[in-house]
User: What shape does this take?
Amino acid sequence: MIRDNSPEGATDQRLIGVYDQGCQGPTLVCLGGVHGNEPAGIHAAKRVFETLTKQRIAIRGRMVGVIGNVEALRQGVRHVDVDFNRIWMSDRISRLNGNGSGETASVEDREQMGLLSTLHRVFAESQDEVFVLDMHTMSADGEPFALFGDTLPNRRFASRLHAPLILGLEEHIDGVVLDYVNSLGHVTVGVEGGRHDDPGSIDFIEAIIWLALASADMIREADVPQVASARERMSASSRNLPPVVEVCYRHPIADGDAFQMKPGYRNFQPVREGEILAHDKNGPIHCPEDGYILLPFYQGLGNDGFFIGREVKVGWLKVSSLLRRMRLDAVVHWLPGVKRHPTMKDNLIVNQSRAKWYALEIFHLLGFRKRRLEGDTLVVGRRKPHLANGRRF
Ligand SMILES: [Zn+2]
Assistant: This one.
């Protein structure tokens, strides 16, 4: 049953659909069209709503489909004034909230206020854990993958989607919507389904939504044959890819750079240090290290030329889960050259000349992310701890 009886919800143009059967459980929010030229996630969510409704599939909790940037979607462009997935900083959001109607604001300011109100309404109505899936596509060819801020709950949810896992993208770009939602304590995973205009991207994202419903324990696999075929589809597509990749480099594009990616790169294609990947007004752009190319930029709007990732061994993830469960993150400030930040809770100041042997990887392992580097001083912050059943991760 698709229903939304609240007076506000009845007119909310952001809602793709709502499905529940009045049975308490988690909420899965499928967010599509955060970039207006990426409608695949919206089509995929519609298909899932249709199947759920037609087959009256039993569900615990509620699935909600939400559109990100309605105006950009209407125009078929990535964004109208500014990138909608780079503006979710908490200070900006408080400023927007203080502005009231924001009459003089940009298109994305108004979209942000609309999406904030929809999301907060959905979160307020949730009776249990909230999972948010942010569904994107890319300008290059390539297999689907999942990306997330590396908390244990995000990791657990993402690992059941049977897609390669990308860590650390959020350390290279600020203000993504999932970072904001994660900071509210919800479980978040972003997915890239494939090339924007490839119909196969809709199939992949649909498969990911079925797996997300199963991963959140909202549907029973025995009742829903779509889950097994989704797993098969995803496993087949990721068979020859590294299971976990950490983003270690981003090539930013500035206005007027005349950035041109060399044709033919696929997402996850292995690249070598020194290889010419692109050109801009200053000449050739070389690959900074061996690894995998991620999200090579081929057309449209955007400021990310490409990312380079390196494979993370699955054993490393297991060690990191163990260390975090042992709460070693709570005593890491005892190490020489590391102290607590005087004002920012959950942040550490690392004097890199004293703490030479602790690479940033050690802090990643313990669930911290890089905030900034000033000279020899590195500031790392703990990702927002997730609260579930009274446990802190
Ligand atoms: Zn996108």
Residues 1-9, 386-393 have pLDDT under 50 and may be disordered. Residues 35, 38, 136 surround zinc ion (CB under 6 Å).
